[in-house]
Amino acid sequence: MALLIKPSTNTAQTCCGCSSASAVRGSSPLFLLAAAASSSSLSRRPSSVQLGRARRRGKKKIVVGCVASSKSARSEAPSRRDSSAMAAERVTAVATIKVTVGGFLNSLRPSRAIDNFKDLIGRSLYLELVSSQLDAKTGQEKPTLRSYAHQVADNDDDVVTYEADFDVPAGFGDVGAVLVTNEHHSTEMFLQDIKLVVPSSASDDSDDDGSAAAASPLLAIRCNSWVEPNSGGDGDAAGKRVFFAKPYLPSQTPAGLRSYRKKDLEEKRGDGRGQRKSGDRIYDYDTYNDLGDPDNNADKARPVLGGTQEFPYPRRCRTGRPMSTKDPKTETRKGDNYVPRDEAFSEEKQLQFSVTTLQSVLQAAVPAVQSTLIDPNLSFPSFFVIDKLFEDGVKLPKAEDLGFLRGVLPRLLQRLRDSPADNVLLFDTPKNVQKDKFGWLRDEEFARETLAGMNPYAIELVREFPFKSNLDPAVYGPAESAITAEVLEKQMGHVMTVADAVKQKRLFMLDYHDLYLPYVHKIRAQEHTTMYGSRTVFFLTGDGTLQLLAIELTRPASPPPSAQPQWRRVFTPSTDTTESWLWRMAKSHVRAHDSGHHELVTHWLRTHCAVEPYIIAANRQLSEMHPVYRLLHPHFRYTMRINALARSALINAGGIIELSFSPGKHAMELSSAAYDKLWRFDAESLPADLVRRGMAEVDPTSEHGVKLAIQDYPFANDGLLVWDAIERWVEAYVARFYPDAGAVAGDAELQAFWAEVINVGHGDKKGAPGWPELDTPASLAHALATMIWVASAHHAAVNFGQYDFAGYFPNRPSIARTRMPVEEPVDSEALAAFVEDPDNALRECFPSQVQATLVMAVLDLLSTHSPDEEYLGGMEAAPWSGGDAGVRAAYGEFNARLKEIEGIIDGRNADRRLKNRCGAGIVPYQLMKPFSGPGLTSKGIPNSTSI
């Protein structure tokens, strides 16, 4: 049984306030419920270590660092030494272990009586001090100094503290690592930190009980890691971990630590065989071969993504589950989706995830039940019913009224009835609806959200006209667009020609033509969904806002037996009633295209999916004492666990994406196509991305080195501030460890890490352009800053605004279910129904009640910060580098700059000259504000892709 953790508020005993995790098991066909229930283990919360404090009563402050030889130690604190100390130094190791919240799971631990007995006799935690130096006479590693730790403090609401005393002989050298063995019979430990202190009397700076926990440390090691039980009783086997004291480049590793560095890396790589267990800490690669479920249902067979030219994709963490009997290429979905033990959720994260999941699932399910839903494809009967989701709430149904959801929700409903919420559920009103209930109808808001909404990565500059497809016309039909200069110039009011607009960089576009067109007929073969290729054109007006000009929808030529020719049509704003309603429907199709692109490409592919290979490669090739590992590690927090949950119930066959987004069962194939055509590493930094899309041009004279094509582009304006802050911090950090190009090129671990990212983690792109050489401090800093940007700010920009922009689904429907009524050959019955009741035709095009409310619930969950969130530049995740003052100072400047950026963003949001972020009915753009409290705030940049 895992130890459940609660963040400590007792700063006298703990300096990081990190958290651990619990084993929570369950199952549900709904993603949110499954996500909460399937996480079988939770992980650490990296946090800042308080590396000591000044001594009082006139005593000299003990300098933080490795345990010194007796000579240097005596010079630091002579009042503590007598003549007998000339031969040895007495030090105490203080280990801090997180414990169960309130002790409520204490009685459930297996073999707890045995573990308690071991604690009582002081044989539950075995510590060994490792010298950094080799023995001068033998040239071999010095024997470790060994001692059992005894428990000195136990607070069920806080931590357990263990101490072990050591006599460090003269000439032992600096302590470079501590070996920890968990001698409990079956209970894993979450080790928060280890400090080496000089013992003091109870009258000095020690705790009231005489323990050494409060003494100023000679050495402080932040661990924040699970140590599995040594159930076999072999101190050199399972349950033994090494924790290093200081960061070192491989070539600078002290001789006494080299074998430990090598062995720890080898253990984390594993041997690539067998099924992984929940307590493992092994990192290995596999393809996305676990999305389908052919053993359960033949209709749920899906292609393997990754490892082929047809479906290239990044790699994910290997679980080693058995292969399917019906499709030997597909991994079965039995059991939990393994992630290495330290990658799982903390308890705080898990509890928040569970509570929010409960509310979200019910909010999605209850409206469907209240409308006596039988058909899951039933549309909303009116916009009034949609509004009631936010205005009046809905009463909880009885279990017998649950219909097809009966097997999923009864226990959850009972839990909610027992809570203060009583019998009413209410979706929070999204901020855009609070600001302007009818904003979703306005073309201006449609255009504004391309710059300041939840997918600001899609809009691009029009650099050539007329538009022309790059797809084969023999297969898809004529390549030329139906959007003509005459159409655009009319909509621009003839203020200029299209040629002039292109030359002056005044035309912009959402281009979902070539990406979607090859999938149109595949998607249309499914029921209750449809698809077009689309182009949407905007004009930059004199006041810096965008005017929506035209939308082109294209259906490609179809193969036999239908063999229909290509159909395409351009829709524009109109005062004609029929054309006006067609325009609204065309906008809904484009919004559905943008929703799919956002979720599958901008969000999932470019952050969650692309980052996982960095995490695996870093753990396999960079020692935990490597400075680059320590820099990157906070930016990997929770990513592997949330990705595993996504593979379990979000992007899998029959998951939320397939059920609720237009591409349906072809969603992940489309994501693979986007990876093949669009993704490259050197375009993932913000400046490079803006330049690639034509939204900026390189300009060394500009503040951020680029000049924006649209000056009032809220995401880019704020994002560049954050990018620059990240890059400056990383450059300072890299400079501390890499003085020149030779140090970078000669770092064997670093080069192995980068080679593995390219050749294995992103192996399907290894021959593609875009991979920089890590051969100088500058190239290294830029690559690291890019990874950090993607994991933190890029993800925040496309994640935490989801509910406020798409929670009211008419603004951003996830799916368009019906074809345009004028598509040829025209369905006369559908056209007549449209003319008779265009309002109803539009609602039938929107997601069904089940789809809409389920997506609303998912977005509610994904947009919510957990209480233990760690934010970019936050001091809870400040780096520790063996007391390196330069690193601490640089990080302090990073923190201060991000706080300054918050004020700049607030000022911009109050500036009425910036019409894309300030004005009547406009939601202020806050997604690049670095810090936030818990909950649904539409701001805050977590360190990592954590949800």
TrEMBL record:
Start-end of Basic and acidic residues biased regions: 262-284, 324-337
Cofactor requirements of the protein: Fe cation
Sorted UniProt keywords: Dioxygenase, Fatty acid biosynthesis, Fatty acid metabolism, Iron, Lipid biosynthesis, Lipid metabolism, Metal-binding, Oxidoreductase, Oxylipin biosynthesis
Entries under CDD domains matching the protein: PLAT_LH2
EC number: 1.13.11.-
Matches recorded under Pfam families: Lipoxygenase (PF00305)
Domain Lipoxygenase: 247-947
Stretch list, region Disordered: 254-337
Molecular function per GO: dioxygenase activity; metal ion binding
EC top class named in words: oxidoreductase
Annotated GO biological process: fatty acid biosynthetic process; oxylipin biosynthetic process
InterPro entries: LipOase (IPR000907), LipOase_C (IPR013819), LipOase_C_sf (IPR036226), LipOase_CS (IPR020834), LipOase_Fe_BS (IPR020833), LipOase_plant (IPR001246), Lipoxy_PLAT/LH2 (IPR042057), Lipoxygenase_dom_3 (IPR027433)
Domain PLAT: 93-241
Pathway(s) per entry: Lipid metabolism; oxylipin biosynthesis
Function: Plant lipoxygenase may be involved in a number of diverse aspects of plant physiology including growth and development, pest resistance, and senescence or responses to wounding.
Family per record: Belongs to the lipoxygenase family.
PANTHER family: LIPOXYGENASE
Protein name: Lipoxygenase
